[in-house]
Amino acid sequence: MGRLPSRRELWTHYIAGDGRQSRAQFSAKVASYSGDGIPLMGTILGIDPSLRGTGMVVIKREKAEDFVLKFSDVIDLHSFKGDMSACLCKIFEQLQVVIDQYRPDGVALEQAIYVQNVKIAQVMGAVKGVILMAIRLKNLEVKEYPPLRVKQAISGYGRANK
Q1: Which phi and psi (to 5°) does residue 118 adopt?
Q2: Would you put residue 139 in left (φ > 0), alpha (ψ -120 to 50) or beta?
Q3: What are the DSSP E strand ranges found in the chain?
Q4: C-alpha atoms less than 13 angstroms from C-alpha of 117 in its C-beta half-sphere
Q5: CB 46 within 8 A of CB 32
Q6: Which pLDDT score is estimated for 154?
Q7: What is the pTM for the complete model shown?
Q8: Cα separation, 151 vs 50, whole angstroms
Q9: How much is the pLDDT for 11?
Q10: CA 89 → CA 94, 103, 154, distances in Å?
Q11: Band (1; pLDDT cuts 50, 70, 90)
């Protein structure tokens, strides 16, 4: 088996416009390689942390070009009347249910972005702490990715809208 192409080589090939695959197919292919060029296989839980709207997705990959969406949801706490600690408990409980149901092989977590507001930074730190605790209690490995990299892998543009 030959060497796997780097992300840069894949993007160069795509931009050259070979026309054989859609942008979504290409983005999935680029996103499917780990940093060391090894194709990612198995079940992955992706998490976009937020106090009032934590996003979750479970994707399974068994073959090189085969991605299956198993689950997608948002822990929507916008209308929840509880305080921050109650929201953190809800996030923890919901993550435990998803992890128990789908039994992921690993977790991809969006890194915290730079925030100028100290209160928001404290809230996001608490949310991330609860998420990391839920993950580690299930003995799962977690990898963190910057938001720009996640957006580029999905849409092909790092500054795309959410």
Answers
A1: -65, -40
A2: left
A3: 42-48, 53-63, 66-76, 106-110, 141-145
A4: 4
A5: no
A6: 61
A7: 0.72
A8: 17
A9: 61
A10: 9, 20, 30
A11: very low
Helix (H, G, I), strand (E, B) or coil at 65: coil
Q: Give the integer Cα–Cα distance in Å for 60 and 46.
A: 11
Q: Assess whether pLDDT exceeds 90 at residue 149.
A: no
CA-CA distance, 135 to 158, in Å (whole number)? 27
HSE on the CB side for 20, CA within 13 Å? 6
Residue 42 φ then ψ, to 5°: 105, -160
What is the per-residue pLDDT across 16-64, written as a single tens digit (0 to 9) for each?
Answer: 655 555 555 555 555 555 555 555 678 989 898 989 899 898 888 877 6
Of residues 66, 22, 24, 21, the one with CA closest to residue 41: 66
Q: Rounded CA gap, 54 and 56, in Å? A: 7
Q: Which residue has the tokens 């992890």?
A: 99
Q: For residue 146, what is the enclosing H or E element? A: none
What average pLDDT does this structure show over 151-161? 66
| C-alpha span between 37 and 26 (Å, rounded) | 16
Nearest-angstrom CA–CA distance, 35 and 58: 20
To 10 degrees, what angle do helices 23-31 and 7-15 make? 170
